[in-house]
Please model this.
Amino acid sequence: MIELEGVPELIDPVMVAAFEGWNDAGDAASTAVAHLDREWKGEVFAALDAEDYYDFQVNRPTVFMEAGVRKITWPTTRLSVVRVGGEKPRDLVLVRGIEPSMRWRSFCNELLGFAHELGVELVVILGALLGDTPHTRPVPISGTTSDADLARRMDLEETKYEGPTGIVGILQEACTHAGVPAVSLWAAVPHYVSQPPNPKATLALLNRLEDLIDVRIPLGELPEDARAWQVGVDQLAAEDSEVAEYVQTLEEARDTAELPEASGEAIAREFERYLRRRDGAGPGGHATADGGDGPPGPPFLRGEPGGRPRPPKPPRTGGDDEESSEE
Model:
């Protein structure tokens, strides 16, 4: 049995998890959980034993100095708890770490042990994948679950994906088999500007999470960071006519596909979010888009010396010779 010292009885707890690595294009998902932890001043109450799950030649420990003493930080997964105030207070159990190198079933069982002891009512796993989506449009967010009843109740898609998967898919299935309601939220990151950070995708994940669990999330500087990110990519794309033409092609495809949805539900959701924020002025290697959890897309692009990302030139053909790689 897991013994939790110093953790009070939680109110309607929801576990929110994200893992760096294959399921985290642009670091969008892990940055979202880090944002929640920072804004709500999360208190770490547990960390998984790094020896059990990580290959230190893949995820190396780091050495740092503290008060003249050398110390080591080991790669691991940590759990913290935050309390969200308001008329309906509730607690979030934040899980943030690195996709494990081994023993995935034991890893998931250990996390489920914490969920059971804490009385977690819902597990939400955040992920980000590479997709053919233009940076100029709203970030597509897909919500999936393996539970047909949960899909109907929460207006989610019942996952039908078959193929290679990451820890997000494995943890979701482990939750389903353990009888714990679980949802995955995926952000689609433009494959031509995939290197981190991507504050626009992080912001989109947090907005969708806010709708899903009905809490107001303080966004801090994220909206401004997202605008600045888009302006920066706009400027870089404008410097290359081929890139600009490719982005325009993606825009046209996206706009055509979304014409039937340019109405009701999305507009209503945005209006509800606006009302919630107006009335509550307090603080409040990577997967690809061919099914939500597939093999990684094009390699991450490296930034310019000044730190700005440069989109690659688009392929001149239909992309039949596009390479895939896994970091």
User: Anything to note?
Assistant: The chain has nine helices and eleven strands. Residues 230 and 286 are 21 Å apart (CA to CA). The first strand starts at residue 14 and ends at 20. Confidence is low (pLDDT under 50) at residues 291-327.
